[in-house]
Backbone:
DNA sequence: CATGGGTCCTGAGTGC
DNA sequence: TGCACTCAGGACCCAT
């Protein structure tokens, strides 16, 4: 599942392959992927003869700069981009194809069909998820005091709050579990009970795990590949995620899996002390 | 407003 | 072997 490190790697991989190229045609095979505009024929028509001038990332969103538009793309669970020669056989589940002037194609495929694309210009509102996004984890103006105050306002489990993109942008199930492990914080801890010191440790851990994952090319637990179709390597360095039943790399205790905020959640019961149960629990 | 549960979707895994 | 069933989860929608 592409989170910030995976999307960052997709961005870097695609940048060298499609920036500077002009779109000569767009084929939309699965209209549900295109959220904006409603009319997918218009989506294709408006992009025709536009040039991709840059690619950036905000949280888990990929932003293609295609003046006068921005194409906002979210990979959700299993969205993938590939660049191929026109005529080269397509992989299954290819839903959107951008034909480029040099005979290559930018192809979007997505087994689960959860991914979305919004074509935005000055006259259209940005997709809600993008406007309500919290700060980037590596934003220099983000300090632990800001994170502390955000957490203090929420009674939900810390895991649920960290998954909430309006609190902090870019974390998903893998890196939330990993950051909480590194911080010795149990995922069921109510966010409001996190101390200033713990918020400081947590922010360091979030930045540490994300930057190492970016450097390793992201995590390919199931299906992730970057813009060149290559797997990442960070799955080998995970401490808790997808390691149920295996020994903790720090203390040897068996990693356990539980459900928090409706998500599979991995903890070391020794390194991450459980919060005190409520009365009657 | 904050919170939590249901929903979208397909393939992999499980049990009989 | 085959079939029914469960599970995986990011963001959105909706009820409380």
Residues:
């Amino acid at each position: 599942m592409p989170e910030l490190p995976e999307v960052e790697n997709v961005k870097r991989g695609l940048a060298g392959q499609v920036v500077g190229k002009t779109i000569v045609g767009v084929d939309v095979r699965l209209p549900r992927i295109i959220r904006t505009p409603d009319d997918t024929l218009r989506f294709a028509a408006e992009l025709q003869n536009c040039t991709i001038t840059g690619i950036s990332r905000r949280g888990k969103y990929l932003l293609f700069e295609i003046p006068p538009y921005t194409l906002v793309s979210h990979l959700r669970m299993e969205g993938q981009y590939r660049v191929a020669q026109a005529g080269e056989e397509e992989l299954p589940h290819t839903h959107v194809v951008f034909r480029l002037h040099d005979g290559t194609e930018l192809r979007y495929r997505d087994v689960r069909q959860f991914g979305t694309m919004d074509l935005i210009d000055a006259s259209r509102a940005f997709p809600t998820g993008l406007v309500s996004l919290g700060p980037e984890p590596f934003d220099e103006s983000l300090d632990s005091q800001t994170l502390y105050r955000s957490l203090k306002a929420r009674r939900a489990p810390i895991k649920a709050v960290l998954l909430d993109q309006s609190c902090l942008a870019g974390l998903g199930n893998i890196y939330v579990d990993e950051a909480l492990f590194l911080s010795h914080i149990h995922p069921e801890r109510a966010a409001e009970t996190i101390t200033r010191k713990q918020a400081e440790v947590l922010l360091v851990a979030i930045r540490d795990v994300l930057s190492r994952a970016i450097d390793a090319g992201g995590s390919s637990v199931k299906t992730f590949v970057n813009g060149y179709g290559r797997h990442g390597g960070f799955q080998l360095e995970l401490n808790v995620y997808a390691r149920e039943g295996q020994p903790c790399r720090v203390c040897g205790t068996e990693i356990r899996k539980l459900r928090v905020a409706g998500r599979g959640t991995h903890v070391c019961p020794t390194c991450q002390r459980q919060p005190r149960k409520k009365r009657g629990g």
Residues 1-3, 60, 74-77, 112, 114, 116, 128-129, 163, 165, 172-173, 222, 262-264 of chain A lie near DNA strand C (CB under 10 Å from a C1'). The CA atoms of residues 55 and 64 of chain A lie 5 Å apart. The longest helix of chain A spans residues 196-215. The first strand of chain A starts at residue 23 and ends at 28.
